[in-house]
Each structure stands twice: as C-alpha cells, then as structure tokens.
Amino acid sequence: MEINNRKRNQIKDLAEFLALEHDETVTPLNKIAELEELPVFYDDYGNAFDGTLVYDKSFYIHLNTTLGNTSDKERGRFTLAHELGHYFIDSHRIALKAGLIKPHPSRYNKNKHQVIEREADYFASCILMPEKRFRKDCEKYRKFDYQVIENLAKQYLVSITACAIRFADIGTHPIMLVYMEDNRIAWKWQSNDFRFWKLADDKEVVPKDSLAGKYFNTGTGEKRTEELWGVDWFDGISDDNINFKVYEQVIPYKNKVLSIVWY
Questions:
Q1: Which domain range does residue 225 map to?
Q2: β-bridge mates for residue 240, sequence order
C-alpha cells in the first residue's frame, strides 16, 4: 500500500520543518530527540531489531548497536530517523500510546509492506535530506555520474541506497535503482521522468546482459560503472533508438546487488 498524497505532504512538511530548524547539513537527530525529552538508548539487543519506539508511561527509543546502529553511522542514523517518524507522525504516536498498535521493531534495508513503515521511512528520508537543502546541493553538479551520489551520501551521512532513492525523487537528473538478491529483483525505484519503465526480461528477473546479470551469472565482479546498450536493461526501445546507451553503476555484495542506471 502506497502513502496517499495528502499524508505524504504532511509527513514531508513536518520532517523538513524539524530538520531546517537546525543549520547543520547532517541533521542533528539526537538533539531533536533531546528537545522533545525523548530518551534514546543505544545498547546490545542481539539480532532482535535495529530500532524500536516503546511507550511505557512515556516514550523511549531503543537502537541496537550490535547491528551497527550507532549515532555516527549511516545505518544508525536512518534507524533513529525512522523511529522519530513513528513518534512525530501523530497517527503513529497516538495509536501506540493508546495500545491500538504494538511497537514496530524495525529492520534496516528490508522491503516494508505496511503503510506505517513506509510512512516512517519517508519521514526518515525527508528529515535526513530535506528537499530545500538537498536539491540545492544537487544543483551544484552540472553533470550526473555515480560520484554525485557518493558525494551527497557523505555530505548528509546517509547510505548510498537512501541517498540514491532521495535523488531519484527530487534530484536534478533521472535515475533508476534496482536492488537484487539471488538473481531476482527485490525492488526498483526510479525518477518520475525516467525514460523507461519496462525491464528487458521481466519485472522479477535480472536482465542477463546487465552488469548485475553478469555478476550473478559468473559469481564474480566488483563495484564499477560501465556504459551499456539500452536494450541490455530495457524492453520497448524502438528501432530508431536501438543504439541508445545507458550507464550502470553496480554495487555487489555476496548474493546482493544494487544497480543505479542513468543516461
């Protein structure tokens, strides 16, 4: 279930108001929590969760350092921003306080199906990379390549994935992200003005002639950018555009690959 436009705008306005109250490019999440008198506990919770917001006479956030959720790391910052979303979004906080919903222990980088988790993720993206500030920094780059995403991710202290999704939404150049596991497409995300929507093979199979497809087929590969034919990634390219080229940045890790595609 997708977030409806009205709720999406409300979340964006709230998150960006909180972020832009502070001058820092790296949004001071712990300071925001302190101003709300919302305790944040960093501790060892084994493999139970990345983060959770709990109500017991008052609200508390727990972050699991065992899974890398520390205040100075991209993973920990996104998890904290996600839990702040559950707190600041009125419908989440009120339902949790009233016992209408149970605490939602979050797991980082998992595909969220519940709308409440999608809303918290969207809040996290907006508070970490508020549109006014982020887009202004995007506009400093006259030409797009993968280095733009790397630079912005470092500047905002967010993961490559979170930064690329935000860039796809509000950046200055159309891109597509495809996340794959075990030679299957787990999810994809792209700019509204990205030229192509239909992948070369089908919506679940990794295109065999893409860099990602070659990685899965051979079991070897490294992080790199390569220029490919458009038909290596997309179906529906007309004969007039048969020589159309695209760029793919592949980021492989064990049985997983994130590809960023642009033209």
A1: 134-262
A2: none
* Polymer length in residues for the chain: 263
The tens digit of pLDDT for each residue in 51-78 reads 999 999 999 999 999 999 999 999 999 9
Same domain, 121 and 65: yes
136 exposed, middle or buried (CB, 10 Å; 0-12, 13-18, 19+)?
Answer: exposed
The pLDDT of 192-197, averaged and rounded, is 94
Q: What is the pTM of this model?
A: 0.93
Question: Which residue in the block uniquely carries the two structure tokens 């790397």?
Answer: 150
How far, CA to CA in Å, does 189 sit from each of 61, 167, 174, 176, 179?
29, 11, 11, 6, 9
**Spatial distance between the Cα atoms of 40 and 63, rounded to a whole number of angstroms:** 7
Residues 117 and 160 placed together within one structural domain of the fold: no
- Nearest CA to 19 out of 112, 81, 74 is that of 81
* CA dist., res. 167 & res. 218, Å (int): 31
pLDDT in tens, 132-166: 999 999 999 999 999 999 999 999 999 999 999 99
Domains: count for the chain: 2
